[in-house]
Design goal:
Elements: H1 2-42, H2 55-58
Length: 62
């Protein structure tokens, strides 16, 4: 009887610890994902300036 209660408590603790480890792992992955997304948005993207439009191209319709 007493041994069965000990085994039950041990199995519950094992399941709880496994769930806790999974939760921590998920938290770690989500934090790494958010930090990497923030770091990626910090990288300056070189935007090409628009080419100067010649007046002949603008007035071509007329």
């Amino acid at each position: 009887m007493f041994r069965r209660i000990i085994m039950q408590i041990f199995s519950m603790a094992l399941v709880f610890s496994i769930c806790w480890i999974e939760l921590l792992y998920f938290e770690l992955i989500s934090v790494i994902y958010v930090v990497s997304m923030v770091e990626l948005t910090k990288i300056p993207v070189k935007v090409q300036p628009p080419a100067p439009v010649s007046p002949e191209l603008v007035n071509r319709d007329e």
